[in-house]
Amino acid sequence: MADGHAVGERAKFREMLEGTKEDWEIIAEHSRIFNKGLAKRVLDHLRLLDGDFGGFPIDRLEHSLQTATRAHRDGRDEEYVVCALLHDIGDTLGSMNHPDVAAAILKPFVSEENLWMVANHGAFQGYYFFEYLGLDKNMREQFKDSPHYQRCAEFCHKYDQAAFDPDYESEPLEFFEPMVERVFSKPKNSMYLKAMKSAE
Ligand SMILES: [Fe+2]
Ligand SMILES: [Fe+2]
Predict the structure, then answer these.
(1) Residue 21: inside a domain, yes or no?
(2) Surrounding residues of ion ligand 1, Cβ less than 5 A
(3) Which of 34, 56, 58, 178 is found 20 to 30 A from 64 (Cα to Cα)?
(4) Which residues form the HD domain (predicted)?
(5) Separation between Cα atoms, residue 180 and residue 86, nearest integer Å
(6) 52-99: per-residue pLDDT in tens?
(7) Residue 162 sits in a domain of what CATH number?
(8) Is 8 domain-assigned?
């Protein structure tokens, strides 16, 4: 390994109170390698949506691909397209708050406006169906003073609510993989950022 530690070497502490600089150099080196696989792990998790219809006309992976494809074909930049691709990745683990899961995964890598859009798309998407479930379709109005309101409303209108067409030909997941790799290779916000930079 780069700093002289053998592959498989482990820290020696039994509780962190005993930790040494060497222990943490070993752990930091492992996490540097582990972090490089993040995009792949995220994509693997997204694949769990394959075949998950939930009563919708198309499954959740196809919906994700269609949302991202529509955004891409409309000229959106790479970061936006990756947000579109991953906006519903939380459906498996966050069935009561799925936008929070996607936002947590994307938070270190995207702009504040894109993060806000992903984090709040649930309330904005509700404009198109909440009335049928006894909910307030105007729930999004609680955000009317946000500078990101229009961005989120546009995302849902143009791409998310529009992405349930079984006849639409989306790009395959492989098409988006290099984009996900690039976006996840450049963290912008993380409390670990300084340590990550010095380990490069
Ligand atoms: Fe969603
Ligand atoms: Fe969606």
Answers:
(1) no
(2) 88
(3) 34
(4) 60-121
(5) 9
(6) 999 999 999 999 999 999 999 999 999 999 999 999 999 999 999 999
(7) 1.10.3210.10
(8) no
